[in-house]
Amino acid sequence: AAMTDPAERACARIAPTWPLDRFIALNPFWSLIDKPISEVAGEIAALSGARLLMPRQWYAQEWRAGRLRSEHLREAIAEHGADVTEDELTALFWSGEPTPAQRPLVVSTMEALGHRDHEVTWPEFVMERISRFCATYFGHGQAQISGVRKGGFYASWRGQASMDHAPYLFMDLDGYRATVAKLPRTPGEMITLGCSDLGVVEEERERYLSALLLDVNGWASWCAYLRWTARIAGEDDDHLRELLAIRLAWEWILFHASDETIRAEWRLAMTSWPAIDRAARLVRTDDWILQRAVEIAWLSELRPKLIEGFDAPRPPAPKLQAAFCIDVRSEVFRRALEAQGEGIQTLGVAGFFGLPIEYEQLAADDTRPQLPGLLAPKYRVTDTGVPKGVEATRRARLGASYAWKAFKSSSLSSFAYVDAMGLFFARNLIRDTFRAQKHPAHHPDLAGLSKSEDRMRMPRLTSDVHGEPVTGEVRCEIAATLLQVMGLTQDFARLVLLVGHGSETRNNAHAAGLDCGACNGQPGHVNARAAAALLNDAEVRAGLVAHGIEVPQTTLFLGALHNTTTDEVTLFEDDAHAATHQSDLDGVRIVLERASDATRRERAPRLGLGELSDVKLRAAVAKRARNWAEVRPEWGLAGNAALIVAPRERSQHIDLEGRVFLHDYRHEDDKDHTILVAIMTGPMVVAHWINFQYYASTVDNARYGCGNKVLHNIVGGHLGVFEGNGGDLRIGLSLQSLHDGERWVHAPLRLAVFIEATRPAIDRVLERHAQLAQLVDNEWLHLFQLDATDQAVFARRRGEWTRTP
Fold first, then answer.
1. Which helix (H) or strand (E) holds 75?
2. N or C terminus of the chain: which is more exposed, having fewer CB within 10 Å?
């Protein structure tokens, strides 16, 4: 459908949410970044009641704690160019919380005039009917035994609605069955007829239809994901448009099945929309200055320290190099590793290590993406080195396990299972609970494999996604690009670690959210190992010379995995290189263990573990990882606030407290700015997605977070969660990922991006990539340039660069 169609424009406003097994972060307002953030805040407040700012009490707490001070308010006022005084801003601390009105819908109009005694409201009832249908339609397992998907999404719902007695039985809607019988047969007809019959004028249709989608935002986000992934693959998907038709159908049903009083009230309600929109735009304009002042308060501590790093020299050739993902959790470990002695250099790069791949596991029936959600895979990595018999054995083990799990979860067997196996299962549950305290969490990738069988696996780049071999020339180009993006084209150490990251938790629906976002919510060791093997390949090494990169024969690349929950680092395939690098490997194991201890010591206070010896602390974090009842096994990326794109020596002297994404970049080695473009269009966007998912989940957890983790029920095997037994599909992060029960651990600050490159080079990238310019100009993030020549930091605002205080 053309973008002139209001329904299509409404659908385009919804950002996707990824399934639990590929849970990656995304700015839930990604489709709206073409507008200033404050304007979007007013729009969504009017359409859905959502908010994009913290309550005023939170800013008052920052003021009372001394973190927010007068100089920060003055700088924010000057930056904003606002006609407001410092006293007027501080007066907001003691003002009441503004509650702008929300545009009424038919369902809310029904509720306002219903005069019923039922506990369930009309908005709750409509949500429950739609959400249950969606869960059954899209779900796996139990839904597969039904014929609910017959004819497609809207048609299936229409058939189900015609047999639904709940509106009459529970809500006294007498005219429901007769009205449903008149429902249009196609979603397109439903949208056209619905808007017409309800009297929604053409200029209001996009906003009205947007409000309907925001009313079922969780499921709308899921349908947007189906559309997103289809379009990346060069196809399309209509589930989002059909969901809109379903939600509009409920408005149409209530409008026609009710009496004339409701219809008259609805016509009057529509006349209030323009005034509600105006009020929402104006209600919290000064609060945005408070938000900016809190961000300035944090930046005012960081900027001078970055300037101190301008005089740091380029380090000499190191003894050990370790490349980590840019993830903020890596910052703590990198600092600890560097502190183990001279000659240790760490690097930051996107954690998929430049491999746009899908991964086909041993004995797997399909592949999974191991790259950022922005991209479509080009190549395939498969498990090599395993005897054929192991593959057949794993298939048999997985088949038996799946059959048993399917029986336990089947809707037909569940009661019989509990009845017949209850005591036996209870005994096993108790046994497994105690066993869990002693053994590491078993990642799904290891299912059906013994430890020795798993060690045989060697993930290797074997083909493109169509199964065609990857030519030697292409392999060299991939390797050269990776080294260039890492800034590692000379001064190679004898040992170079490529360290992916993953987490270790039990009973955690959002476990993938703690894994590598750059690997589509998967552990990053697959990419790290495949990249290391590629860089060790003799033919690739020879081909790199044509790219101006000479890797010494004595240099060994090795894949590794940083467990961010326990801070242990595992080396892969190290035994294969004992003959040539035994002393290097012995040394690196020692420094990695010491760095792990230091990292755990730094993280211990945030985990409430107090003063423990290294041995006891190691055991304590391992216990948290294996505890089924632990709702905060680690803090993930809570606290993230900035991205630094510069040589490591600019920030190596700073304790960044695990709050900063670090990507290495040397602009003097990037003459044509190809690497700068790749970083700004890739890692910078991913860092913003992560930052703004945390931001949105904090400022409005009810709509853009997933509530209390203790109450979660998984929907459809992997789609998402309900909080409790129903309601909308919940998106975003849980409260336990952001709040420790007493205070917010995550402070919602928009990402501050610091890039050491020339200002004209940065400007050219923004000119050629509209979305990046929108992110900056519309204040979804803040962009700064590190100028080593002038020993200054420049900020880009409204298209101009200004030297910061």
1. helix 70-80
2. C
Could you tell me whether strands 712-715 and 720-723 are parallel, antiparallel, or unpaired per DSSP bridges? antiparallel
Instruction: Find the range with the poorest average confidence among 323-327, 384-388, 468-472, 584-588.
Output: 384-388
Q: What is the pLDDT of residue 364?
A: 82
- 475 near 534, Cβ under 8 Å? yes
Residues 379 and 618: their CA atoms lie apart, in Å, by: 38
| 217: nearest Cα among 361, 389, 50 | 50
In sequence order, what DSSP letters do the residues of 408-475 get, joined into one string? HH-TTTHHHHHHHHHHHHHHHHHHHHHHHTTS----GGGTT--HHHHHH-EEEEEEETTSPPPPHHHH
pLDDT of residue 419: 46
Percentage of residues of the chain with pLDDT beyond 90: 82
Q: 224 to each of 19, 143, 243, how far by Cα in Å?
A: 12, 21, 10
In this prediction, residue 427 carries a pLDDT of: 56
| pLDDT higher than threshold 90 for residue 431 | no
* DSSP assignment of 290-339: HHHHHHHHHHHHHHHHHHHGGGPPPP---SEEEEEES-HHHHHHHHHHHT
Reading the block at residue 628, the tokens are: 């089924």
- Round to the nearest angstrom and report the end-to-end CA distance of the chain: 49
Q: What is the pTM of this model?
A: 0.94
Tell me how far CA of residue 543 lies from CA of 341, 530, 538, in angstroms.
34, 18, 9
Closest alpha carbon to 707 in 690, 718, 721:
721
Is the pLDDT at 791 greater than 90? The verdict is yes
**Integer Cα distance of 750 and 295 in angstroms:** 7
- What CA–CA distance (Å, rounded) separates 390 from 79? 64
Is 440 a residue whose pLDDT tops 70?
no
Asked if pLDDT for residue 1 goes beyond 80, the answer is no
- Cα–Cα distance between 492 and 740 in angstroms, integer? 43
DSSP 8-state assignment for residue 707: B
Q: Predicted confidence band at 314 (pLDDT cuts at 50, 70, 90)?
A: confident
Residue type, 92: L
Whether the Cβ atoms of residue 419 and residue 412 lie closer than 8 Å to each other: no
Buried b / exposed e over 342-381, threshold 16 CB at 10 Å, is: eebbbbbbbbbbbbbbbbbbbbbeebbbbbbbeeebbbbb
Q: Are 320 and 488 in contact (CB under 8 A)?
A: no
107 vs 124, 256, 627, 659, 792, CA distance in Å?
Answer: 9, 12, 44, 43, 56
Sheet holding 379-384, edge to edge: 368-370, 357-360, 379-384, 458-464
Strands (E), 465-593: 495-502, 556-563, 568-571
Q: Pick the closest to residue 713 from 728, 727, 724 (CA basis).
A: 724
Count other Cβ atoms within 10 Å, centred on residue 732: 27
Phi, psi (rounded to 5 degrees) for 756: -95, 95
Half-sphere exposure of 173 (CA within 13 A, CB side): 26
Among residues 280, 247, 327, 230, the alpha carbon closest in space to that of 103 is found at 280
**Closest C-alpha to 679, from 756, 732, 619:** 756
**Residue 222 near residue 729, CB atoms below 8 Å:** yes
Distance of alpha carbon 619 from alpha carbon 606, whole angstroms? 16
CB 751 within 8 A of CB 782: yes
Three-class secondary structure assignment of 760-771 = HHHHHHHHHCHH
Nearest-CA neighbor of 676 among 754, 763, 765?
Answer: 765
DSSP 518: G
* Residue ranges per structural domain of the chain: 116-276, 320-354+485-633, 402-436
- 526 token code pair: 């697959």
